[in-house]
Amino acid sequence: MEISTLLGSIGLCVGAIVAAAVIYFVVTAIKGKRAERKEREALARHKDQQDKRARR
Length: 56
Hints:
This protein is mainly alpha-helical. It has a domain at 19-56. Helices cover 95% and strands 0% of the residues. It has one helix at residues 3-55. It is rod-shaped.
């Protein structure tokens, strides 16, 4: 096998690993934002319930 073929194969492997890492970080960031939004909504509902109880 020639050196250029070997380097091309290594480049493809490295490229695939980098692409997988980028996809992983994007997906985890999206999931984190979604969880954060749900948490914020739950806190807002809790505060609303507390306010309703305080008014009574």
